[in-house]
Amino acid sequence: MIHEKGNISIHTENIFPIIKKWLYSEKDIFIRELVSNSADAMSKLSKLVAMGEANLGEDHAFKITVSVNSKAGTIKIIDNGIGMTGDEVKKYINQIAFSGAKDFIEKYKDKTDDQQIIGHFGLGFYSAFMVAGKVQIDTLSYQDGAQAVRWISEGNTEYEMDASDRTEIGTTVTLYMADDSREYTEKFKMREVLKKYFSFLPYELYLVDETEKPEETDKKEDTKKKDKEEEKKPEPLNNTSPLWKKNPRDCTEEEYKEFYRDTFMDFQDPLFWIHLNMEYPFRMQGIIYFPRLKHEFETMEGKIKLYYNQVYVADNIKEVIPEFLLMLKGTLDCPDLPLNVSRSFLQNEGYVQMISRHITKKVADKLSLLYKKEYDNYKKYWDDINPFVKYGCIRENKFYERVEDIIIYKTIEDDYTTLKDYLEKNKDKHENTVYYVNDIKQQTQYINMFKENGMEAVVLNTMIDNHFISFIESKNTGVKFLRIDADITSNLKDETSEENEKEIEKQAEKLEKLFKDVLGNKDLKVQVEKLKSDSTPAMILLSEQSRRMQEMSKMFGGGDMQNMFPNEETLVINRNNKLVKALIESIENDEKTEDRNLLVKQIYDIAMISHRPLAPEAMTAFVQRSIQIMEKII
Which of 20, 66, 576, 594: CA 20 to 30 A from 426? Predict the structure, then answer.
């Protein structure tokens, strides 16, 4: 081959600085581009062999080797793929595949947004100049009689071509790394990057550290030691046949779990999974796992890894993965994704939305199948998956439409019910009203009262439930949710009572005055009822609207904003209770005693403790008062 020098036909020398500064958002993407090119070269040769247009020896095994040398400051990407002829080097390397290069440079040279340039460039090979001061290509085409070619450029528009000493078909790209990128010549760093992008590359990938090779100074090396080293074959870094490539019928439960543990470094088994394997209207394979989510909604962040022909692209690309699915974990390989040169950004919005809708449908279908075919397991999973399902309903209306009939609610009896069944079962007691608990320990008193009266409430105690309740109310006209300590007295009143109404009103007025006077709170709202249960002397009710407004103010404003909404707490005194009856008798006998005042304060604090935690000062007073009462008993 005749020695040749020339200029890359791009009409300007400004292209390389722009590539280095703007083309890629992550520096290590140069590795992804170059190794991906090697994989593409082997795919092309493999297709030619399959068509009978190329012949390879029986011992030809496709592989890619990345060689690093920290002493020399070099990285080599070596493949045995299709290779290039001299003319092909001129075409694919020297000519950049875009038109109007000069206009392109003028348009982007002053841009500050690196994404502006994406999609306008031709070859990922030029990402090498992000990190290298000099790039060398040695390549030999598969074609019979082809001559090996060497191409060299030092990061400007000048190049040099000559004959190469390469004897095997394929290509070696050698990078002479710039000082600010020498970290990639370290084996541990390169291994990290290769594992990130190529854990599932379809061709075997090896990493070699040339720095570690000893100099051949000892010609009398121990023969036995040498034989042992030859017997030890290097292991590829990647799994060329990831589980998602298999037919779901051929995958075992343990294989799914093992793949999950290895891929996500999560040693807690997933609950269940969805294996996607489709060819039409687009190709997509993958596995989506449902991990154990529990109630930590604010910290829930899964990881959906997106691949393009088994090459990693990015995590959690919201254009492809519906936002609510990002709480899950999984791998998706979409060979038909319209990616541009950086393999990171999506171009065809309509196509991508179609993929997103399909993923949403598959997830909803899986949940529906579990509900119908494995209801016992579905109930077991619900505590873990319900934050995900609820968030998905709020974020994606199509998802809600598919799963609205399989949303279940855990009850205070440790059973499960749908909204439809709950409303039907309780329509004679509280029509179109759903009572719920959001703190089982704090609201024990109310729960016990409900159980004693044969009433049912559901448990809604995840962080997303405040939003979910409002969402469900908006979707079901006329249905309202009330926390268990809201306005429930109408359902608890003893309707068999025939006491004189005027006498009841007088006693209620006296009790109300007593509590306001003793507690020193003239604005206290007091309600006296004769409840069916006599175990509870008093309880605090807070209107649902007031509670929601207060919680919203805490979430979004806090501080002074909370004072914008009135505190509509009501003290409900149970006339059926023994302690309250004693108070009524004390009032009627005009006994203004210290003991009566202690009892009033104690009844109030007990009601408050069941409603919400006492302030430190109030708790101290409650404890001291409890001791006083016990001392009087002795």
Answer: 576
pLDDT in tens, 59-100: 889 999 999 999 999 999 999 999 999 988 888 787 653 333
Structural domain total, the chain: 3
Sheet of 204-209, strand order: 4-7, 158-163, 149-153, 132-140, 170-177, 74-79, 63-69, 204-209
Q: Is the pTM of this model over 0.85?
A: no
What pLDDT score was predicted for residue 121?
33
Which DSSP helix (H) or strand (E) runs through 205?
strand 204-209
Structure tokens that stand for 37 in this block: 């090119």
Backbone angles phi, psi at 359, to 5 degrees: -60, -45
Coil, helix or strand at residue 327: helix
**CA–CA dist 508, 514 (Å, integer):** 10
Contact (CB, 8 A) for 258 and 296 = no
Q: How many CB atoms lie within 10 A of CB 296?
A: 11
**Measured distance CA(242)–CA(615) in Å, rounded:** 57
How far CA 314 is from CA of 135, 198, 283, 353, 599, in Å, comes to: 27, 12, 18, 17, 65
Do residue 258 and residue 196 come from a single domain?
A: no
Reading the block at residue 202, the tokens are 């379809």
SS3 87: helix
Q: Alpha-carbon distance 596 to 77, whole Å?
A: 89
Question: Sign of torsion, CA 513 519 524 526?
Answer: negative
- How many Cα atoms within 13 Å fall on the side-chain side of residue 319? 15
Mean pLDDT of 317-340: 79
Q: Tell me the mean pLDDT in the region 277-300.
A: 76
Residues contacting 245, CB < 8 A, separation 6+: 285
Maximum separation of any 2 CA atoms in the chain, in Å: 122
Query: What token pair was written down for 369?
Result: 């199948």
Contact present, 491 and 453 (Cβ < 8 Å): yes
Q: What is the CATH number of the domain that holds 29?
A: 3.30.565.10
Q: Please name the residue that has the structure tokens 């990078």.
A: 175
Rg value, the chain, Cα: 36
Lowest average pLDDT, out of 2-6, 15-19, 423-427, goes to 15-19
Domain boundaries, position 121: 4-212
pLDDT at 116: 35
* Calpha distance 45→335 (Å, rounded): 19
Among 169, 197, 212, the domain-final residue is 212
Integer Cα distance of 529 and 493 in angstroms: 7
> Under a CB-based contact definition with an 8 Å cutoff, are residues 211 and 174 in contact?
no
Cβ atoms < 10 Å from Cβ of 564: 10
Which helix (DSSP H) or strand (DSSP E) does residue 601 occupy?
A: helix 594-611
Token digits of residue 120:
């306008």
Instruction: Supply the CATH number for residue 622's domain.
Output: 1.20.120.790
Angle 599-601-602 from CA coordinates, rounded to 5°: 60
Residue 536 domain flag: yes
Distance CA 506, CA 46 (A): 96
